[in-house]
C-alpha cells in the first residue's frame, strides 16, 4: 500500500489515480487505525484520501468533495467536530449530501456536544 503524508500528497495521489470509485475522506490521527481502515475501504472498492489533522481534512474537503467521510472526533491537532462544523458552514457542498460516520474512542459519548 502506498503511503502519503499530508493533505497535498494525498490529493496528488488521488489526482494521479482518478477513478469512478466512490471517494471516502478518512480523518484519523492514529496511523495504527487509519492505515488498516483505509486498506479495508480500498478492498471494498472505495477510493480513499486520508488526513491526520483537522486542517489537512479541510484542505482535502475543499479540493475533493467526498461521497462519504469517516471522522475521528478526538484528533491530536484540532477536532473532528471542527471539520464537520466548518464543512457545513464554509464549504459549498457537492450535489447531493455527503454521508458522515463519526468515530471516537470516548467511553462517555454524552460528554461530546451533539452535532
What is this entry, summarized?
By secondary structure, this protein is α/β, with parallel strands linked by helices. It is 39% helix and 17% strand. The N and C termini lie far apart (34 Å).
Describe this structure in words.
The protein is α/β, with parallel strands linked by helices. It has a single domain (6-107), classed as Response regulator (Rossmann fold, 3-Layer(aba) Sandwich), CATH 3.40.50. Helices cover 39% and strands 17% of the residues. It contains four helices and four strands. The chain has helices spanning 6-16, 31-43, 54-63, 80-90; strands spanning 23-27, 47-51, 68-72, 99-103. It has a four-stranded parallel β-sheet with strand order 2-1-3-4, sandwiched between helices. Helix 1 (6-16) runs parallel beside helix 3 (54-63) and helix 3 runs parallel beside helix 4 (80-90). The radius of gyration is 13 Å and the shape is globular. The model has no long low-confidence stretch (mean pLDDT 76).
Amino acid at each position: 500500500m502506498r503511503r502519503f503524508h499530508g493533505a497535498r500528497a494525498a490529493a496528488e495521489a488521488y489526482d494521479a489515480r482518478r477513478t469512478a470509485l466512490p471517494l471516502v475522506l478518512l480523518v484519523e490521527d492514529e496511523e495504527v487505525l487509519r492505515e488498516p481502515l483505509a486498506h479495508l475501504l480500498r478492498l471494498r472498492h472505495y477510493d480513499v484520501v486520508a488526513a491526520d489533522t483537522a486542517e489537512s481534512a479541510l484542505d482535502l474537503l475543499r479540493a475533493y468533495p467526498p461521497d462519504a467521510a469517516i471522522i475521528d472526533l478526538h484528533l491530536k491537532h484540532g477536532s473532528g467536530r471542527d471539520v464537520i462544523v466548518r464543512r457545513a458552514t464554509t464549504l459549498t457542498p457537492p450535489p447531493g449530501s455527503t454521508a458522515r460516520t463519526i468515530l471516537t474512542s470516548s467511553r462517555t459519548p454524552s460528554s461530546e456536544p451533539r452535532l
